[in-house]
Amino acid sequence: MEPIGDQRLDATFAALADPTRRAIVARLTHGEASVTELAAPFAMTQPAISKHLKVLERAGLVSRRRDAQRRPCRLEAHALQAATEWLDAYRRYWADRYERLDGLLDELQRGDDPVASPPTPEGPRP
Protein backbone atom coordinates (compact mmCIF):
# COMPACT_ATOMS: atom_id res chain seq x y z
CA MET A 1 0.00 0.00 0.00
CA GLU A 2 1.23 3.48 -0.90
CA PRO A 3 1.75 5.91 2.01
CA ILE A 4 -0.77 8.75 2.19
CA GLY A 5 1.96 11.34 1.54
CA ASP A 6 2.85 9.65 -1.73
CA GLN A 7 -0.79 9.66 -2.79
CA ARG A 8 -0.97 13.41 -2.14
CA LEU A 9 2.25 13.97 -4.08
CA ASP A 10 0.97 11.85 -6.98
CA ALA A 11 -2.31 13.77 -7.02
CA THR A 12 -0.47 17.10 -6.96
CA PHE A 13 1.81 16.24 -9.87
CA ALA A 14 -1.05 14.67 -11.84
CA ALA A 15 -3.14 17.82 -11.36
CA LEU A 16 -0.24 20.06 -12.37
CA ALA A 17 0.58 17.95 -15.43
CA ASP A 18 -2.09 19.75 -17.45
CA PRO A 19 -1.23 23.24 -18.78
CA THR A 20 -4.79 24.51 -18.25
CA ARG A 21 -4.70 23.51 -14.59
CA ARG A 22 -1.27 25.11 -14.16
CA ALA A 23 -2.67 28.32 -15.68
CA ILE A 24 -5.62 28.18 -13.27
CA VAL A 25 -3.24 27.77 -10.32
CA ALA A 26 -1.14 30.67 -11.61
CA ARG A 27 -4.26 32.85 -11.93
CA LEU A 28 -5.36 32.00 -8.40
CA THR A 29 -2.04 33.25 -7.01
CA HIS A 30 -3.51 36.72 -7.65
CA GLY A 31 -6.61 36.04 -5.55
CA GLU A 32 -9.97 34.32 -5.60
CA ALA A 33 -11.85 33.97 -8.87
CA SER A 34 -15.16 32.60 -10.07
CA VAL A 35 -15.44 29.82 -12.64
CA THR A 36 -16.53 32.46 -15.18
CA GLU A 37 -13.42 34.52 -14.47
CA LEU A 38 -11.20 31.45 -14.67
CA ALA A 39 -12.78 30.33 -17.96
CA ALA A 40 -12.37 33.73 -19.66
CA PRO A 41 -8.82 33.28 -21.07
CA PHE A 42 -9.52 29.77 -22.37
CA ALA A 43 -11.36 28.57 -25.45
CA MET A 44 -13.43 26.13 -23.40
CA THR A 45 -16.75 26.00 -21.65
CA GLN A 46 -17.38 26.64 -17.99
CA PRO A 47 -18.23 22.95 -17.45
CA ALA A 48 -14.81 22.04 -18.87
CA ILE A 49 -13.13 24.50 -16.49
CA SER A 50 -15.22 23.02 -13.66
CA LYS A 51 -13.81 19.57 -14.46
CA HIS A 52 -10.28 20.97 -14.22
CA LEU A 53 -11.21 22.60 -10.92
CA LYS A 54 -12.48 19.27 -9.56
CA VAL A 55 -9.10 17.68 -10.33
CA LEU A 56 -7.36 20.56 -8.54
CA GLU A 57 -9.79 20.25 -5.62
CA ARG A 58 -9.18 16.50 -5.27
CA ALA A 59 -5.45 17.23 -5.14
CA GLY A 60 -6.10 19.79 -2.40
CA LEU A 61 -4.72 22.65 -4.51
CA VAL A 62 -7.98 24.59 -4.84
CA SER A 63 -10.98 25.12 -2.60
CA ARG A 64 -14.37 26.72 -3.20
CA ARG A 65 -16.63 28.54 -0.79
CA ARG A 66 -20.12 29.94 -0.99
CA ASP A 67 -20.48 33.69 -1.20
CA ALA A 68 -24.15 34.44 -1.86
CA GLN A 69 -24.64 33.35 -5.50
CA ARG A 70 -20.94 33.01 -6.19
CA ARG A 71 -18.66 30.08 -5.43
CA PRO A 72 -15.22 31.67 -5.65
CA CYS A 73 -12.20 29.44 -6.00
CA ARG A 74 -9.04 30.00 -4.04
CA LEU A 75 -5.55 28.54 -4.13
CA GLU A 76 -4.56 26.30 -1.24
CA ALA A 77 -0.84 26.95 -1.51
CA HIS A 78 0.02 24.79 1.51
CA ALA A 79 -0.91 21.77 -0.61
CA LEU A 80 2.17 22.45 -2.73
CA GLN A 81 4.44 21.91 0.30
CA ALA A 82 5.07 18.19 -0.30
CA ALA A 83 5.86 18.79 -3.97
CA THR A 84 8.18 21.66 -3.06
CA GLU A 85 10.03 19.50 -0.53
CA TRP A 86 10.33 16.64 -3.02
CA LEU A 87 11.70 18.94 -5.72
CA ASP A 88 14.00 20.69 -3.24
CA ALA A 89 15.75 17.39 -2.49
CA TYR A 90 16.67 17.15 -6.16
CA ARG A 91 17.71 20.79 -6.28
CA ARG A 92 20.14 20.10 -3.41
CA TYR A 93 21.36 16.96 -5.19
CA TRP A 94 22.18 18.87 -8.35
CA ALA A 95 23.67 21.83 -6.45
CA ASP A 96 26.05 19.39 -4.72
CA ARG A 97 27.01 17.80 -8.05
CA TYR A 98 27.70 21.20 -9.63
CA GLU A 99 29.77 22.23 -6.61
CA ARG A 100 31.86 19.09 -6.97
CA LEU A 101 32.26 19.73 -10.70
CA ASP A 102 33.35 23.32 -9.98
CA GLY A 103 36.00 21.99 -7.59
CA LEU A 104 37.28 19.57 -10.19
CA LEU A 105 37.41 22.31 -12.84
CA ASP A 106 39.31 24.59 -10.42
CA GLU A 107 41.87 21.83 -9.84
CA LEU A 108 42.27 21.30 -13.56
CA GLN A 109 42.73 25.04 -14.19
CA ARG A 110 45.44 25.21 -11.51
CA GLY A 111 47.21 22.37 -13.22
CA ASP A 112 46.55 19.88 -10.46
CA ASP A 113 45.95 16.37 -11.69
CA PRO A 114 43.11 15.11 -9.52
CA VAL A 115 43.65 11.56 -10.79
CA ALA A 116 47.34 11.54 -9.84
CA SER A 117 46.81 13.37 -6.53
CA PRO A 118 47.23 11.26 -3.41
CA PRO A 119 43.95 10.35 -1.78
CA THR A 120 42.73 12.47 1.10
CA PRO A 121 41.90 10.90 4.48
CA GLU A 122 38.27 10.68 3.36
CA GLY A 123 39.32 8.79 0.24
CA PRO A 124 39.70 9.92 -3.36
CA ARG A 125 37.27 12.49 -4.71
CA PRO A 126 34.98 11.11 -7.37
Can I get a quick summary?
The chain is mostly helical and 126 residues long. It contains 5 helices and 2 strands, in the order ααααββα.
**Count the helices. How many?**
5
Q: Which word captures the global form?
A: elongated
Biggest β-sheet description: 2 strands, antiparallel
From the alpha carbons, calculate the radius of gyration and give it in angstroms: 23 Å
Helix-strand pattern: HHHHEEH
What oligomerization state is this entry in?
single chain
Written description of the protein model:
- The chain has 126 residues and is mainly alpha-helical.
- The chain has a domain at 4-78: Orthogonal Bundle (Arc Repressor Mutant, subunit A).
- The chain has five helices and two strands, in the order H-H-H-H-E-E-H.
- The protein has a two-stranded antiparallel sheet.
- Strand 1 (62-64) and strand 2 (73-75) form a beta hairpin.
- Helix 1 packs antiparallel against helix 4 (46-58).
- The longest helix is centred in the C-terminal third of the chain and has 30 residues, at 81-110.
- It is elongated.
- The two termini are 37 Å apart.
- The mean pLDDT is 85.
Tags for this model:
126 residues; mainly alpha; Arc Repressor Mutant, subunit A; 2 strands
Show the helix and strand layout.
Layout: H1 4-16, H2 19-28, H3 35-39, H4 46-58, E1 62-64, E2 73-75, H5 81-110
Antiparallel strand pairs: 1-2
Helix pairs in contact: 1-4, 2-4
